[in-house]
Amino acid sequence: MAIDPPSNLPDAEPLDTVPPEFDQELNEGTLPPPKTLGGILRQLGPGLVVAGSIVGSGELIATTKTGAQAGIALLWLIVVGCLIKVFVQIELGRYSICNGETTLNALNRVPGRMGPANWIIWFWFFMMLAGIAQLGGIVGGVGQSLAIAVPFTGDYREAIAVPEQSEVVSYLEWTDLLNSETVELTDIPEEELTRIQHGHKRIGEALEQLGERGVQTLEAVKAGETLKDPRTWDDKFWALIVGLITVALLYNGRYSVIQTISTVLVIAFTFITIGNVVSLQMTEEWALSWDDVVTGFSFGLPKTGDKWDSLATALATFGIIGVGATELITYPYWCIEKGYARYTGKRTNDEDWVTRARGWMKVMHYDAFLSMVVYTIATMAFFIMGVAVLYREGRDPGGMRMVSTLASAYVPVFGTYAKWLFLGGAIAVLYSTFLVANAGHSRMYTDAMKIFGFIPRNDQKAHDRTLTTFCVVLPILCVALHWTGIDPASAVLLSGMMQATMLPMIGLGALYFRYTSTDPRLAPSKLWDVMLIISFLGLLVAGVWGVYLQILKLM
């Protein structure tokens, strides 16, 4: 039975920017949604692509670093960061499927225009600049992994054999503390003392293995000299090779190619990491106790070290773990390319459209929630590894030693094979992130070119030409940034902080769509609305608090 069309359809402006091959209005390719579980599972994909773009940066680098800095105390924040965003993610997907619009074009409908775009789009632009630095850090991580595994000259391997400045300084301070006659070791919290003893032993052994070079390093730091890491080329040449391979894959790569590669790479390393965590729990030295787990979910802050610095790192991590701001925006693009919007068809007032829309949104729900389960488990595994091994040994992954430090988290279980196991896995997930993120960024930049009026909105040739250009330029630009000597971990965390700031803006956009543009026939339940509001408030608190902490650090 026909009913009156909804009165809250999106305004005529801005016009949609969906490329013609995926446009609901220009294609008659509607498709009934699958009704069986098997049929639904065969239509999944966008969520796995998104998972492929996040495991390498948020999970492998930022989450493990947070565990190394803060210990178990911030486990609750990591889990909340994964769970809270899925409601906003699905709301953005709902809008794109029902209205056939890309995320940027939809967000540009939120009031507050400043020229051709509104305030959200302008902040997105600056966030994406930091995102390029993040990808420079990630391709640097791939380069570091390959430079260790398959060196050209061995200069990178030789450079990272020497502990960095901060580690040597800590070693000297810990030596004085452990040998002090005025400080009672019993006055130091047991957890902190264990950390100091493990770190002191580890750095001491590393310096001893260096022989005379280690002695000279110690004497230089004692004399107040600053250790400077040498410029290495193995990691940079490998990063260049990786960048060129990415250009070749993206130049003609379609959605199916990206989905297949990212899925295989992520699943392989995630299972290795989960296995590592389970194995750690079976060892007396590295296992986390039940009390540790309770502490992790007690909504507290770290009791040792610089808790505010650890919290700032955690909030930056919050911006990119699970689905970060970039992935929230990108997800509907992959839904459109998968065909969810085209299969649903242009919104009309007939019941057939409502049935299709409900069916394909159900598929999207499965897709989003399944990917959430995957990346939440992976995130917890990486965090626990950082806590169980790196935190207890006083390690903090960063700089040119980022990959070698992360690899040490696998040593207690896999021994001498750990390096090769980790390097293979790190190359897999870091490259998956680099590949998928460049593909997603290229699509967003192409969309932005339409919003800002640089290319026609509905010209398929202009769209394809611009997309191909970005697929070539962005990977090379990321490699160039790595060659400048950018710190991979710092670049990832900078992008994370920008994304954490962007999250409440995206949450606001999702609320705006829900209450101004949702077809009443497809309105979600009251419980869903409550969870969406809670999600927005959580993103708002994390974003504002993260900015506040960064301001404090600058003062």
Automatic annotation (TrEMBL):
Where it sits in the cell: the answer is: Membrane
Q: Which GO terms describe its molecular function?
A: cadmium ion transmembrane transporter activity; manganese ion transmembrane transporter activity
* Topology term for the membrane: Multi-pass membrane protein
What sections of the protein cross the membrane?
68-88, 119-142, 237-253, 260-280, 311-334, 368-391, 420-440, 467-486, 492-515, 527-548
Keyword check for Acyltransferase, yes or no.
Answer: no
> Would the keyword Membrane be found if you checked this record's keyword annotation?
yes
CC terms in the record's Gene Ontology section = plasma membrane
Q: Which Pfam families match?
A: Nramp
Kindly list the biological process annotations in GO that this record carries.
iron ion transmembrane transport
InterPro entries according to UniProt:
NRAMP_fam (IPR001046)
Task: Please indicate which superkingdom the organism of origin belongs to.
Answer: Bacteria
Q: Give the UniProt keywords, A-Z.
A: Membrane, Transmembrane, Transmembrane helix
Region ranges (Disordered): 1-29
Matches recorded under PANTHER family: METAL ION TRANSPORT PROTEIN, SOLUTE CARRIER PROTEIN FAMILY 11 MEMBER
Q: What is this protein called?
A: Manganese transport protein MntH
